[in-house]
Design goal:
The protein is an alpha+beta fold and 320 residues long. The protein contains 11 helices and 12 strands. The strands form 3 sheets. It has a 5-stranded antiparallel sheet with strand order 11-3-5-4-12. A hairpin with a 3-residue loop joins strand 6 (171-180) and strand 7. The longest helix has 29 residues, at 68-96.
């Protein structure tokens, strides 16, 4: 998590960027409006440090503005801030999952996306095909209807909440793309970083790196997955819970004991930890809709939703 000093530095750069050129007195007012207890002397010292780092420069008689280096630093800080918020969001949602695969009830983490109302039938044709494939079932919920239809599908993060509710602390360590031909065969791209999974999902979907459509035609494709570590002493229980969850809400799973050959990229697993690689149907569904130009906007961490609000894609399609 970013320190208070780093957050203050980023907020100061952002305010300069939004109001440049700007003087120290105005910056004190704006920082105080944002909850900082800060004096004019402190602002002057901070600005002097930013000048020395070539992040800001003086505009004669008007105050400071950002340099090109300052704008790059602001971009980096914005990325760090977004990832921090994503980590916090994942941790919060994981801790609030109440889903029980044995009862198929409770709340799951869901992603949500919008498709044009005029093309909702086409969207449900694809989701039904995905449901009927070997990665199904695909539970779907219609959240809103209008010029666009907002659909929700369970997220892969649900499985972390299921494990945590049984006292199994799973740590997200890797996300990326895998080749799939009835099972996960190998990673073709991997990005490490605890808690950064969902940002990676958006990146990979928007970069057109997936091939979920391939699964519908020849059972081979490229999927987004995430891998988590959990204590080896809970291997059997974690495997049973994860498999039961997959059977109820879909996706693909792969387990690996320490130092076993397998799909997890090297260097991510210690002797005391096993790993579970999971590709959730929420991520698959949105990737598939994006591949067909049907996804107008989406949020892979839309929040918690009761399992009872979801229906199998074919059944929901018949009612629309």
């Amino acid at each position: 998590m970013a320190s208070g000093g780093e957050r203050r530095r980023y907020d100061l750069l952002r305010l300069i960027d939004e109001n440049e050129p700007i003087g120290s007195i105005r910056l004190v007012d704006l920082m105080q409006q944002r909850g900082y207890s800060i004096k004019d002397r402190t602002i002057r010292l901070l600005l002097s440090e930013l000048d020395d780092q070539n992040l800001t420069e003086k505009v004669s008689g008007k105050g400071r503005k950002l340099t090109s280096e300052g704008r790059e630093e602001l971009k980096r800080g914005d990325v760090s801030g977004r990832l921090e918020r994503i980590r916090e969001r994942i941790a919060t949602l994981t801790s609030e999952v109440t889903y029980d695969p044995a009862e198929d009830g409770g709340e799951v983490v869901a992603g949500a996306g919008r498709v044009p109302a005029a093309r909702v039938d086409e969207a449900f044709d694809l989701l039904t095909s995905l449901h009927e494939s070997e990665v199904g079932p695909v539970p779907v919920s219609v959240v809103e209807r209008g010029r666009t239809v907002k659909l929700a599908v369970p997220s892969s993060i649900t499985i972390d909440g299921v494990l945590l509710s049984r006292g199994i602390n799973a740590r997200l360590v890797t996300a990326g793309l895998v080749e799939y031909d009835g099972e996960i065969t190998r990673y073709i791209d991997a990005i490490s970083g605890e808690g950064s999974t969902m940002d990676v999902v958006r990146l990979l979907v928007q970069a057109d790196r997936t091939d979920v459509d391939g699964i519908l035609h020849d059972s081979e494709g490229v999927l987004i997955v995430d891998s988590r570590e959990f204590p080896l002493t809970r291997f059997d229980e974690a495997q049973d819970l994860s498999t039961a969850t997959r059977d109820r809400i879909g996706g693909v799973l792969s387990f690996r004991r320490p130092r076993e050959s397998g799909q997890v990229p090297a260097g991510t697993q210690g002797w005391e930890f096993a790993s579970c690689t999971y590709g959730g149907v929420g991520e698959m569904a949105f990737a598939l809709l994006h591949e067909h130009g049907l996804l107008s906007e989406w949020d892979s961490l839309d929040g918690l939703r009761p399992r009872s609000t979801f229906e199998p894609a074919p059944a929901l399609r018949e009612r629309l």
